[in-house]
Amino acid sequence: MAQAWRCSGLRWSADGPVLRWDGGRRSALTWGKRVAFGVTEGGVRTCVGARGNACPIRAGVPGRSTGARCEECARLDRAHSVAADTIADDPRPYRVYLAWFGPGMTKVGITALERGSARLLEQGAVVFSWLGVGPLMAARRTEELLRAALGVPDRIPYAGKRAVRAALPGSAAERAAEVEALHARAVRLGGWPESLERTSCQVVDHAGVFGLTGLAPAVGAVSELAAGGVVGGELVAAAGPDLHLAAEDGRGVVVLDTRLMTGWELVPVGSGGLTVPVREFKEAAGVQDELF
Predict the structure, then answer these.
(1) d(CA 50, CA 53)
(2) What pLDDT tens digit does each residue of the chain (292 aa) get?
């Protein structure tokens, strides 16, 4: 029987996206690479636990859950979280940023200074610029000020991000325009906390990093994995947690949210196309010592 692997998520490195596996192994992903795996027959998706600790009861979780956590582990995971706004005493400096995902889709957010641009890559931000840096609560207050004054949200749904990736403006200048305009408005506002140091606009463009140039529109997205199901395709782009795969069954480009992979036992496959449930968009062999 083929060795089963458990995915612990997609991470972004300086060289691009990397799938991580329980036990510490990693699979670097490059454009044109074949991504293919099967879900074990009779397998059940189980909770991945919280904050580095295993779920004590290995609870089952729904296939469509992107968190792959049971209710109790999800609560514990968010009990000490900046994103959930449940801590106020983190001494690290934080950055405030503007992130752009497509026309009319810009958000404001914060991330720890030490993380660099990792948070922006993880969210699939096509363009971003820093706005300022300071203590956590000053960064949080600035985020709220800008959200209200600029009329931008602090979250953009992934469905919206996926829908526009293949139809983004072709030039870096066009992609940067919205962030530049909002940054100029932001720095003219009053009411910024004194402890937050403002940052000049320096736009970073991830279109090339994500492989979005010339990207074909996706025909659908994997809605969930299922026991006995197979995913197979050629990697043509990646952004945030999403892999854009040219499906082996010839149906076109399909998006796989790698968060759906966690909690399952996965095995290598030689071929098999795409046999897991796919939500269609209205528009449009041998033994392996690694899964990929």
Answers:
(1) 5
(2) 568 999 999 999 878 999 999 988 999 999 999 999 999 999 999 999 998 899 999 999 999 999 999 999 999 988 866 665 556 678 899 999 999 999 999 999 999 999 999 999 999 999 999 999 999 999 999 999 999 999 999 999 999 999 999 999 989 999 999 999 999 999 999 999 999 999 999 999 999 999 999 999 999 999 999 999 999 999 999 999 999 999 988 899 999 999 999 999 999 998 778 999 999 987 543 344 455 5
For residues 116 and 138, the answer to whether their CB atoms sit within 8 Å is no
Residue type, 200: S
DSSP string, 196-224: SEE-----EE-HHHHT-TTPPPEEEEE--
Q: Angle, to 10 degrees, between the axis of helix 172-188 and the axis of helix 136-150?
A: 110
Contact present, 132 and 159 (Cβ < 8 Å): no
Question: Measured in Å, how far apart are the chain's first and last C-alpha atoms?
Answer: 17
CB of 245 closer than 8 Å to CB of 253: yes
Sign of dihedral through CA atoms 20, 25, 28, 32?
Answer: negative
- Residue matched to tokens 């009990």: 79
Q: Quick one: which of 167, 161, 31, 77 has its CA closest to 69? A: 77
Cut 0.70: pTM above it: yes
Q: List the beta bridge partners of residue 110.
A: 96
∠ at Cα 256 (254, 257), nearest 5°? 145
102's torsion region: left (phi>0), alpha (psi -120 to 50) or beta?
left
Q: Which two tokens stand for residue 95?
A: 């950055």
Instruction: Report the helix count and the strand count for the chain, using DSSP H and E.
Output: 6, 15
